[in-house]
Amino acid sequence: MLLHGTVCTREGKPIAGALLDFWQVGEAGVYDDDGFRLRGHQFADAEGRWRLETVLPAVYPGRTRHVHVKVQPPGGSVLTTMLYFPGERRNHLDKYFRTECLMDVRETAEGWDAEFTFVLDV
């Protein structure tokens, strides 16, 4: 799965250097609590763009499919959230699900392509 997007202000100005920290379950639906598999961070580029190649997270008991993310502009506050997949049958059952955190997702010949724009108050 390719997960990508931008970080910007409410006015649409890119936030260069924003820190993005990701973690998720793997294909078996479990978190790696002993190592660092499917966990990591990166910084947005000068245009606020970010790009992560990962696996499609599995659905596991009690939750819908999602990816955890923390986003922090340089010198700013941390936003902790989750990104969700549209059309998942368990979305409405997940107590943490928020429609504003739905990614724009499409299936391509290369795999899943998911896009999201983080809009931060800075």
Automatic annotation (TrEMBL):
Matching InterPro entries: Intradiol_dOase_C, Intradiol_dOase_core, Intradiol_RC_Dioxygenase
Database matches in Pfam families: Dioxygenase_C
Annotated Intradiol ring-cleavage dioxygenases domain residues: 3-31
Signal peptide extent: none
Domain of life the protein comes from: Bacteria
GO MF annotation, one: oxidoreductase activity, acting on single donors with incorporation of molecular oxygen, incorporation of two atoms of oxygen
Keywords, alphabetical: Dioxygenase, Oxidoreductase
UniProt entry tagged with the keyword Manganese: no
UniProt key word Secreted: no
Family: Belongs to the intradiol ring-cleavage dioxygenase family.
Protein name per UniProt: Protocatechuate 3,4-dioxygenase beta subunit
Organism: Kitasatospora kifunensis (Streptomyces kifunensis)
